[in-house]
Amino acid sequence: MAIKHKNSQITIFLIVGVVIILTVAIVFVISRYSIKKTTKQEIINAKEAVFDIQPIKNFVDECLFIVSKEVLKKHFDKNSTQEQLAAFVREDIDACLDFSVFERQGFNILKKESTIFASINENDVTFRMEYPIIINNPISKEKTEIKDFLVKHEII
After folding, report:
1. Do residues 66 and 97 lie in contact, with contact meaning Cβ atoms separated by under 8 Å?
2. CB 114 within 8 A of CB 93
3. What are phi and psi of 131, to 5 degrees?
4. Which of 39, 57, 89, 132 could in theory staple to 147 by disulfide, Cβ–Cβ 3.0 to 4.6 A?
5. Where are the domains of the chain?
């Protein structure tokens, strides 16, 4: 009788063990699936946030391009220094950076002080602007900061 009792105990332990292993496996599979689903949604949200601010970044890039091109037309010669070119762009850039069109669309844009650097290279002049802009998206309620802008002009 003791042998039958031991056999039934072993059977019960095996069944309980299999149930525990199956439960852990199911929980593991479900948790991995939900993590993948969350990650995919976060990627989609990140792409949407970038898409929302891309026109603002393009606008600032275009302003920097136009202003720096005009500065080169008016002030660039063999005696120009990088500091002079950067100073001329710094003087003129604010007139171009009118964010009112984006603000009318509901964006709240906080602008900080800009710093402009010019680099005269062998075949081009590069202008880099550090201009921290914090954009509050009215739809997603997210804040995004962009700050680095760069343009190059070929010189002959």
Report:
1. no
2. yes
3. -140, 85
4. 132
5. 2-154
